Amino acid sequence: MPTLPTLCDIASSARAKRERRKDARPGELLAAALELFVEKGFAATRAEEVAKLAGVSKGTLFLYFSSKEELFKAVVRENISGRFSEWSAELETFEGNSADLLRYCMTAWWERVGSTKASGISKLMMSEAGNFPELAAFYQEEVVKPGNDLIRRVLQRGVDSGEFRQLNVEYGVYLLLAPMMFLALWRHSLGPCVAGNGELDPIAYLNTHIDNLLLGLTVRTPAAPNAS
Amino acid sequence: MPTLPTLCDIASSARAKRERRKDARPGELLAAALELFVEKGFAATRAEEVAKLAGVSKGTLFLYFSSKEELFKAVVRENISGRFSEWSAELETFEGNSADLLRYCMTAWWERVGSTKASGISKLMMSEAGNFPELAAFYQEEVVKPGNDLIRRVLQRGVDSGEFRQLNVEYGVYLLLAPMMFLALWRHSLGPCVAGNGELDPIAYLNTHIDNLLLGLTVRTPAAPNAS
Amino acid sequence: MPTLPTLCDIASSARAKRERRKDARPGELLAAALELFVEKGFAATRAEEVAKLAGVSKGTLFLYFSSKEELFKAVVRENISGRFSEWSAELETFEGNSADLLRYCMTAWWERVGSTKASGISKLMMSEAGNFPELAAFYQEEVVKPGNDLIRRVLQRGVDSGEFRQLNVEYGVYLLLAPMMFLALWRHSLGPCVAGNGELDPIAYLNTHIDNLLLGLTVRTPAAPNAS
Amino acid sequence: MPTLPTLCDIASSARAKRERRKDARPGELLAAALELFVEKGFAATRAEEVAKLAGVSKGTLFLYFSSKEELFKAVVRENISGRFSEWSAELETFEGNSADLLRYCMTAWWERVGSTKASGISKLMMSEAGNFPELAAFYQEEVVKPGNDLIRRVLQRGVDSGEFRQLNVEYGVYLLLAPMMFLALWRHSLGPCVAGNGELDPIAYLNTHIDNLLLGLTVRTPAAPNAS
DNA sequence: CATGAATGAGCTTTCATTCAT
DNA sequence: GATGAATGAAAGCTCATTCAT
Known about the structure:
Chain A has 228 residues and is mostly helical. Chain A folds into 2 domains: 7-76, Arc Repressor Mutant, subunit A; 80-217, Tetracycline Repressor, domain 2 (Orthogonal Bundle), CATH 1.10.357. In chain A, 71% of the residues lie in helices and 0% in strands. Chain A contains 10 helices and no strands. Chain A has helices at residues 7-40, 47-54, 58-64, 68-79, 84-93, 98-114, 118-128, 133-160, 169-187, 202-217. In chain A, helix 1 (7-40) crosses helix 7 (118-128) and helix 8 (133-160) packs across helix 9 (169-187). The longest helix of chain A has 34 residues, at 7-40. Chain A starts with 6 loop residues before the first helix and ends in an 11-residue tail after the last helix. Chains in contact: A-B, C-D. At the A-B interface, helix 7, helix 8, helix 9 and helix 10 of A face helix 7, helix 8, helix 9 and helix 10 of B. Chain B binds a DNA duplex (21 and 21 nucleotides) through residues 11, 14-15, 17-18, 21-22, 25, 46-48, 56-60, 62-63, 66-68.
């Protein structure tokens, strides 16, 4: 015998739907916040905008995050998922010479990070590190160190195989890192200001760096005078 | 024989002391502004703080700089763009090969800008460019363009003289710029978070970059295979 | 039989009360603003005072009016320009001779504007026009022009029907306007200083003007020499 | 025997010159203040501007007038010199009919007051009466009353001679006053905002008023049906 | 006396945060 | 839980007024 839903049924179904939405809320808010923080910076992003983009009211945001600062921390933490293990595996299984590996690494970084919203996180950290020291330490530990390790292993691979000259890999890391970071930051700060004329083509920029990097790193055999 | 100061002396000394203070004010304000802008960012620095640090009242600041933005521009001019002509002259009169010039440039940058508070300005612009388009445009015009020009001339000198290989100097500029900018940004953002352990030695960092840069740029004569 | 309010009733009543306050706010703020603008002038009235008089906080004012100038414009619309269409309709449907219409217009102006706080707005604009060109332009467009048009139509009606003599209505407008404006200005400036002795009776003042105005305007038939 | 001027001589001569200038100072400041107050209003006129226009420093202004308000009072008092006795005499000796006298009065007012800076004083008083009640009372006594008396006598002259119809001269005064005051105020407030199109020609404006005024006032003999 | 550098109260506007509904 | 009206602490800038010189 079919029964009409009771008030209680309706309430519980509404509650169920609401709880389902409730679970999704933080994620929607974090996504909205990431979008806006990256686009406009922390200070210039208004809490209300984040709420609106997430489709909730201003008050709701503060239900889930006790302050704008806490929201920021959550955004950064959320988006620093370690894709490092995956990359580490790729590095391990890469077949080919180290020059190609290095080139592959920087190109892959551009495709997967540099050109995406993820690079905005780097910019955010650079900008706000001073205001969020704990967060900076966290980022340092979770991103900078593993990232540097990865790069270091690429260099060490080349040195060990005799493809690259001897060098202090601790500092050599920055030969790769600096160009990538500069590009990421540039694209999220002054870059957009020169849109139109004199704009930077990321691919050409990276290739210029990679080419010169390898010219400097690669050991050239005396027998074959620089044919490059 | 000691003489008593004349009436005229007294008057002029009085005026002199007053004028000395007046003349000193802008410099004191600029120093205070640089300090705070670099430490806290442009938006987060309150005009009153700058005034207080310079030992004057809020109103006095606006006696010398018509707005906070003008104050910022003055800071930039004082610390960076005002010095390009001097650097340009140095470049013009440099005697020696282009590799040495390049090395000299990057070292000099470190000593005069990178290691000083002035390097914070670069970080500042990266952080705030999006929110202050007018400042970004100003910086672009007064710092980025002339700075790039300077670097381009160094590269072109080497290419023209046959010391450096042929390369697109437009992008080659970033071979020098990226390492310097990354260092400046790092030292004013995440750098301070790792103070003590694993800290970056700027000199070693720069030398690593310079060495590899020159290895990549320099044309090696086939007759004397990589003598480096 | 009385019924308990349902859940829905309670909810809607709660919302209703909130919304009623929200709906009432603009009106309360406009009333407060009119009061203070008229009493102290536009520039000398602080936004916070308006808010306080309306029983809300400073911030709330800007929730409803995006700036002090917009608040002023809203006050003008509410009290003057928003009522022109009604007046225009009255003019259109008035039955009676043009002398009576003219008399009716000036009397109605006194009752609806001149004797109310709204007349302070005219004084306000006269005082502040020079310092707030945008407001002056707004007032010109929203009040002066439509107001003059209205008066012009009254005159034209009389001329067209042969009741009034031929005259340049463009300037004739001021035959009505000047007396009304002078009264408004007087009552909000020097008038209050002579309160008690020698004070101006507005009705007598206006009637004196109207009577003489009509004596001057009305065409007297030669057959019945001044029957007035 | 000629003597070199002693220090004391020099000082006293300097003192003499300075005292001469000192005597002139208040007048120069008052003139400058009148100019600016009339042009921009009381609040919008900065003390420093007044000082500069008078050719002295900001501090000096406050040496002669203890505050901006005192300066304003002095300006108004200074510029309300009674030219009334002169006008009264003119009125007394005027030969011609009263219509011509009335016409002459209003025209003369325009030439001597309305079109000159002096009319700015009226506008100032209207604008600032609320903020300077004592001043308003003073103005009332020194300007408004004598002025009204003068006008009243013109009307009374016409009524006594039978040229003008019977009317309550107490209120009749405003038949002349309102048009003149409106013109003065208009020209110093909203008038300048419509410069170019629809601007008011003062002469045409006044003539329109005078013509209608006289048509209304003048007794027309039944024998000569309105030939006007 | 005269100066003008210095002051700081005061103004409009913004926005993170709260809380009655 | 969710809402959004309300709050009030800031912040940049102005300018009458003071006072050391």
